[in-house]
Amino acid sequence: MINVKKKGNKGENDFYKWLRQEGIDRGAMRNPSSGSGIVKSDVVNALGINFEVKTVKKLNLLKAYNQSDRDALASHTTPYLAIHFDGMSDDVWLMVMDNWTWKDLWLKSREDKVIQPSRELRWALEKLKTAITQVLHLIK
């Protein structure tokens, strides 16, 4: 029989190590108190996120998300549920968030998109600018 507490601790360790490896939060670490202290997140981080980490075979999704949401309210953070189901690749986690958090992320991702014109387009715009300037001088 698998020790559930050890499995949960290993999952929390694996998740924070993944965050660090991917450069998402270099200071992330497993919360040794596992949410029993002031910091409720299973993974302490500087992102303003309450991570509820579950490493499971089966899961009551609503119950797990409600736990993350309740803990996030107490710590004034954003709730995320990180789930690793048995049999998944070691570096794959399902992330669960509510629609408002997703909307904020989506809008932020749209703001960060700065269109960089190609070299050819920049050349064409520069030629057009020159041509317009010449025409304006002729009209005067």
3D structure, described in words:
The strands form two sheets. Strands 3-4-5 form a three-stranded mixed beta sheet. The radius of gyration is 24 Å and the shape is elongated. It has a domain at 4-97: Trna Endonuclease, Chain: A, domain 1 (3-Layer(aba) Sandwich), CATH 3.40.1350.10. Strand 4 (78-85) and strand 5 (94-96) form a beta hairpin. With 140 residues, the protein is an alpha+beta fold. The chain has four helices and five strands; from the N terminus they run H-E-E-E-H-E-E-H-H.
Write a brief caption for the model.
The protein has 140 residues and is of the alpha+beta class. 48% of the residues lie in helices and 16% in strands. It is elongated, with a radius of gyration of 24 Å.
